[in-house]
Amino acid sequence: MIGKFFKQLTDKPWLPPEQEVVAEINTGAVALAVPPARVALRLFLCVAFVLFSLFSVAYYVRMELDDWRPLAEPGLLWLNTAVILLSSVALQIARQAVQRGNTRTVSFTLTLGGLLTIAFLVGQYMTWGELRGAGYFAAGNPANAFYYLLTAVHGLHLLGGLVVWARTVKRMWQGAEPYQIRLSIELCTTYWHFLALVWLGIFWILIST
Amino acid sequence: MVFAIALIILIIGSVAFHFLSPWYLTPLASNWDTIDYTIDITFWVTGIVFVAINGFLAWCVYKYRYKEGRKADYEPENKKLEVWLTAITAVGVAAMLAPGLFVWGQFVQVPEDAWEMEVVGQQWHWTYRFPGADGQLGAASPEFMSEDNPFGINPDDPAGQDDKLIYDPVVHIPSGKPMHALLRAKDVLHNFTVPQFRVKMDLVPGLVTYVWLTPTVNGTYDILCEELCGVGHYTMRGRITVEDQADFDVWLAQQPTFADTQAELPGDPIAGQASYAVCAACHGFQGEGNVAMNGPKLTGQSAWYLERQLKAYKRGHRGTHAQDTYGQQMAPMVATLIDEQSINNVVAYIRSLPDEPPQHTVQGDVANGAELAEGCVVCHGDAGEGRHYTNAPRYAGMSDWYLVRQLKNFQSGVRGTHPEDKYGEQMGFMSKQLYGDDAINDVVAYINTL
Amino acid sequence: MAYVAIADQDEPLHDPQSFIEKYIWSQDHKVIAIQYGITAIGVGLVALVLSGLMRLQLGFPDQFSFIDPSSYYQFITMHGMIMVIYLLTALFLGGFGNYLIPLMLGTRDMVFPYMNMLSFWAYFLSVIILLASFFVPAGPTGAGWTLYPPQAILPGTPGVDWGIILMLASLAVFIVAFTMGGLNYITTALQARCRGMTLMRMPLSVWGIISATVLGLLAFPALLVSAIMMLLDKLIGTSFFMPALINLGETLEYNGGSPVLFQHLFWFFGHPEVYIVALPAFGIVSDLLSTHARKNIFGYRMMVWAIVAIGGLSFVVWAHHMYVSGMHPYFGFFFATTTLIIAVPTAIKVYNWVLTLWRGNIRLTTPMLFAIGFIFTFINGGLTGLFLGNVTVDLPLSDTYFVVAHFHMVMGVSPILVLFGAIYHWYPKMTGRLMDETLGKWHFWITFVGAYSVYYPMHYLGFLGLPRRYYAMGGAEFMPESAQSLNAGISVAALTLGVAQLIFLYNAIVSLKKGKPAGHNPWEATTLEWQTPDTPPHHGNWGDKLPVVHRWAYDYSVPGVEQDYIPQNVPRGENEQSGQT
Lengths: 209, 450, 581
Known about the structure:
Largest sheet of chain B: 5 strands, mixed
CATH topology of the largest domain in chain B: Immunoglobulin-like
Number of strands of chain C: 2
Structural class of chain C: mainly alpha
Radius of gyration of chain B: 29 Å
Strand order of the largest sheet of chain B: 3-2-1-5-8
Helix content of chain C: 55-70%
Strand order of the largest sheet of chain C: 1-2
Largest interface: B-C, 118 and 123 residues
Strand content of chain C: under 5%
Number of helices of chain C: 14
Order of helices and strands of chain C: HHHHHHEEHHHHHHHH
CATH superfamily of the largest domain in chain B: Cupredoxins -  blue copper proteins
Helix content of chain B: 40-55%
Number of helices of chain B: 15
CATH architecture of the largest domain in chain B: Sandwich
Radius of gyration of chain C: 24 Å
Number of domains of chain B: 4
Number of strands of chain B: 10
Structural class of chain B: alpha+beta
Distance between the termini of chain B: 70 Å
Oligomer: heterotrimer
C-alpha cells in the first residue's frame, strides 16, 4: 500500500493515463478495498503510538537526572500482564470465530475478553493502592509519578476500547448476526492487540529501569 | 499596473529603509565581530533573493496582466529550470550556513585561558559571583539559600569562602580578557543579554549554562533579561561596566567575600543609640516618624532595607537628584555614619525600638486601592510586610504621607533614576501603574488598612 | 453508513429537516465547516482586539490605566495561543478542510459525519473553556503562549491559579477535537475519492490540508504529553519539569525536573505547528494563483513533493527554537543544518508560484490580489527565517522584536492573506453570491500595505536589541528615543490595520443578501467543487450521481481547446494537445 502510494507520487497527471489505470478508474476500484473505519483505526493507532513513544522518551530523559529513585514494581504486574495477554487471545479467537460465523464461540470469547480487560484494570488499580501503601507517592519521585502516569494513560485507552466493546456486546445480546458485528469485533481485536503490545512495552520499561 | 508599481515601491522602500534606518545593531563591544559578519553575509544573500524574486513577480504581474483573447502558456513543468533553481538555492543556503556553523564552533568552545564568573538570575534581579584568590567558585544549590545566604553557597565548601559576592544588579568586568560566564537561575528561566556583546543564553533552574565573550570596548551597558520570567520580566535590568583590569581589581577588592557576609557582626544597638541622636531630630526619638519634619517612621522596617538605603545615600545613589529636597537633607546626615559597622549599629538600634502604628493622614477609596495593590503584593508580600527575596521593603504600618511622596518621586523620576540604582528603577516602572494622585491616595489608604 | 461517500446509490444520507438538526447538530461537512469558520473568526476577533491593546501599550506606554503588566502578559499569551491554535489551525483544517476535501474529491460527505460533528462541538467546548479563563479569579494565564515551566505554574506569573489550568484543559480538549476531525479528513481523502481522482489529480489545496492534518495528528500528542505532565506538576506536585527552586523566597517541594525537557516536547509539537498552518496556505494559494492566472500550476509534482518533504523535515528542526535555551550546544550544528535544508523545498514552492504567473493571463480579482500579496510577504518572512534558523545569527536576534516580526510575517500575515483570498474565492460557492469587489480591493490594499508596514520596520527594532515580551522599555541606554517613535508609528499602522478588518466583516455580511449572484462557477475554475449541480451545494453535494474525474486539476488554457479551462469531470477531447510535455 505504501509502495503504491509512493509510486503514484511520480505520476505525471497531465498526461493521458495508462490503460490499466483507465480500467481501474472505470471499475471504480480506485478507493482501497479496506473499510474506512479500519483505516481510521490504523491512523489512530499511529497517533496513540506517537503519544506513548513521547511518554517513553520523556521517561528516559527524566531518568537520566540524578534524583531518580527506581521503585519496586508490585509483583501483581506479572499477573496483570498475563491477564491482558489472555484478553487479547480471547478477542483473537472471537475474531476468527466471527469470520466463520460461529455465534456461540463469539459470544463466549468476546465476553471473556472484555471481562479479562476489566480484571486487568482492577489489577492495575490495586497496584496503585499497593504502591501508595508502601509510600511511593506520585509527588515523591519522578519514577513513581511516571508509573502512575503511564498506567493511567494506558488504562484510559483501554476504557475507551471497553466502550466500543460494550456496545458490541449489547448488539450481540440483542441478537445481531455475526456479520453485523464482525467489523466491530475485528477492530476491537486490533485495538486490543495494540494495547497489549503497548503494555508489554511499558512493562518492559518499568521493570528494566 | 497599479499592483506592479506597488510591488516595486515596496521593494525599493524596503531596501531604502534598510540602508537609511537609524535602528540597527548597536555598536559592538565584544570579540563577536564574526557574528556581525555572518549577519552581513545573510543580508547580502537574502537581499539579492528578495529583490530578484519580487522584481520578477512585479514584472510578471505587469507583463502578463489579463488580456481578452490571450491564452496562457501550457507548461506543467520544466525539469531543467527546476533543477537549476534548486541547485542555485542550495548554493545560497550553503553560503549562509557554512560561516554560521563555523562561528557556532567558536561559540561552543570556551577558550582555555578564559576567567570564570557567575551570573545568578532570580525574579527579578541580577546578582553576580566572582571566584576568590583560589580561582574557584564554591558549590551552590537552592537548599542552602536563605536571607543570609542568597547565593545558596555551600557553607562547608572551602572553595566558596573567598568567593566575591555582588548582591546588586550592577557589576564590573575587565576588558580584553575572555570571560566565561556561568549562568544559574534560582527560580524560573531567565536570559542573560547585553545587546552590545551579541551573545546570549538562558539561565535554567537546575542547570548551569554558560556563555563566553571577550569585552573589547570600555563602557557601561544594559543587561536585559530576555526570557519571560513572570510579571516583572521587563524590569529585570542590570548594568555592566567594562573597564581596565586595574580599575576592575580596585572595584572587586571592595566587594565582600562569602566569608565576610557570614561573619558579619550583628549591629550593636548600644553603639547605635549614640549615632541615632542625629536621626532623632527628624525621625523622632522612638523612630516613630515626624510629618512636620518630613522624617518618615523607621521602626518596623526591615534591617536589610534600612542598610541598603543608608548605603545608597552614602554612595550618592539617592538624595542627589536636584528636585529631591528632602533626600538632599538626608545625604549629609548619613555622612555621620562613617563605616559599615556604624550603619549596622544604628540599624540595630532602630530595630530595638518599639513598632507603634503611625497616625493615618491619607484618605482614599480603599476598595479601589485594594485592586490597584494587586500589582504591589507580588514583590512586597500579601500583607505589605516586605520581602527580602524580591528586595521589596515593608510598607504596611509605615508613614502613609511618606509613601505618597515616594510614589510621586518614583513616578516623576526624582527617585530611582540614578544609573546605579536598579532597585529604584524597578520601582519607577511599577509606580507608573498608578495613574494620577487619586490612585496613589487610594492605594495608600488601602495600605493603611493592613 | 461508512461506504455512503463512495457509492452512487446506497442507503440515503442522514437528511435532517428540523432547524436544530440542520444547523446546530449538523452532520453535513459544509455546515460544520461554516460552524468552524464562524467560531474561529469570532475567537480570532477577540485575539485581534487583544493585539490592539498590546499595541496601545507598546506605542504609548504609561497612557492607559487599564493595561497593567499582568493584563499585558495575559493579552500576549491569549493573543498568541488563540491565533495559532484556535484561529489558524481551526480555520484552515476545521473550516476549509471540512468544506473543501469532500467537494474537491467528489464525495458526498466525510466518511464519519457523526464524528465530524463531535469534532466541531469538542472544538467549540475548548474555545469556551479558553474564553472562560477571562472570567475566573486572577484571569487567564500570562505565561506566554509557549507556557514554559517553571514560570507558567508558579506565583509571580498572572493567572497561575485558574488560568493555566483552563488553558491546559482547553488544549487537551482541542487536541481531542482535532484528532477526531483529522482522522476523518485523512480517511476521507484516502478512501472516499470519487472515480478517477487519483492522488496526483488532487488539487494542491487538498494536498496541503491533508499533509497538515498528518503533521497535526503526529505533533499534537507532544503538546498533550507536555500539557498532562505540566498539569500534574501543578496539581499534585510531581517534578517532571520542575527542578529544586525558590519561589519568591519560598523553597518549594519540587526537585530534579527539567524545564528544557518541556521545551523539547513543546517544540516537537510547536515547529510542525508552523507547517500545520503553512501547508494549507501553500496548497490553497497554489489553486488561487493557477485559477486566476488561467494557467496550470507550474511544477505540480515538485509542489506535491515539496509539501511532503517540508512536512517530513518539519519534525527534525524543532530545536532551532531553543538555540539559547541551555540545551547541549552541539545540537546547534544539527538543527541549523536541517533548518536551512528546509529552505530549499520552500524556495522551490515560491519559485513555482511566481513561475505560474509567468506567461499567464492574470486576472487581478480580489482573491488573486491576496494570493500575490501572500507571495510577497511570504518571501520576506521566509528570508528572515534564514537569519533565525542559522544558529549563529540567531544569537543576537533571538527573543527580540526580530523574532516577533519574523513569525508574524511568515505565519501570521501570510497565512491570513491566504485565508482572506480563500474566503473571497469560495464565498460564492458557500453562499451563491459574490463579495463586493471594490470593498474587497480596499480591504486588500489596507491589509497588505498595513501589515507590511507593521512588521517590516519591526525587524529593525530587533536588530537594535529590543527584547520581546517587554511591557515597557523605559530608558534603556542602548535604545535611542527614535525607537519609541518607531514603535508608536507601528502601533498606529497596526490599529488602522485592525479597524480596517471591519470592511471585510461588513462585506461578508452584506453580500450574503446583496451580493451579485455568482452562478455555479464564477471564476471559471476546473476543480470539482465548482461543478456541483447546485450552488450552494445541497446535502449530499452531487445530486443523484457522483462525478467522475477525467483529468488533473489544472487544465487551464489547454492548447487546441477554445475555452481556457476544462473542468476535471470533462472527458478528454480529441483536439486536446495537453500531453506534449
